[in-house]
């Protein structure tokens, strides 16, 4: 009986110390900047949160960040950012549902049968109503 009580108390202490881990987390940071627009930075925190990023004078940036969810799932996202926008990549990011087969068939049909240029209809001249 006491053996089980001891295990429960030990488990509660372990869970409690894991929750407090964020409050006592330590960070390791690195920053580099050459003064010409090129830069790099990174940080890693002892609680598992971290990020890295490098960029150049042409506003091209590459990086990644990572953390662990409360459920214990590790998350990592890498990204690029440039004149075409921000482009994240990662297994945890939502993705759109697949395009329905009927829509794909309709698009293929439209591509195979482009609409013909409509003939321009000239307006009919209106009869002149005059007083004689």
Automatic annotation (TrEMBL):
Q: What GO molecular function annotations does the UniProt record carry, in alphabetical order?
A: structural constituent of chitin-based larval cuticle
Q: Where is the composition biased (Basic residues)?
A: 122-132
> Annotated region Disordered: where?
79-132
Q: Could you say which residues form the signal peptide? A: 1-18
Entry-linked InterPro entries: CHIT_BIND_RR_consensus (IPR031311), Cuticle_Struct_Prot (IPR050468), Insect_cuticle (IPR000618)
Q: Which UniProt keywords apply?
A: Cuticle, Signal
State a GO cellular component annotated for this protein: chitin-based extracellular matrix
Q: Can you name this protein?
A: Pupal cuticle protein Edg-78E
Q: Which organism is it from?
A: Drosophila navojoa (Fruit fly)
């Amino acid at each position: 009986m006491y053996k089980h009580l001891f295990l429960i108390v030990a488990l509660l202490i372990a869970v409690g110390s894991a929750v407090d881990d964020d409050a006592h987390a330590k960070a390791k940071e690195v920053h580099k900047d050459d003064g010409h627009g090129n830069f790099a930075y990174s940080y890693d925190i002892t609680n598992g949160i971290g990020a890295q990023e490098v960029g150049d004078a042409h506003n091209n940036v590459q990086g990644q960040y990572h953390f662990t969810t409360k459920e214990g799932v590790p998350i990592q996202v890498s990204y690029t950012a440039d004149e075409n926008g921000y482009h994240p990549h990662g297994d945890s990011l939502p993705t759109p549902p697949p395009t329905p087969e009927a829509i794909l068939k309709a698009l293929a049909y439209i591509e195979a049968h482009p609409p013909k240029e409509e003939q321009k209809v000239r307006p009919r001249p209106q009869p002149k109503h005059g007083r004689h």
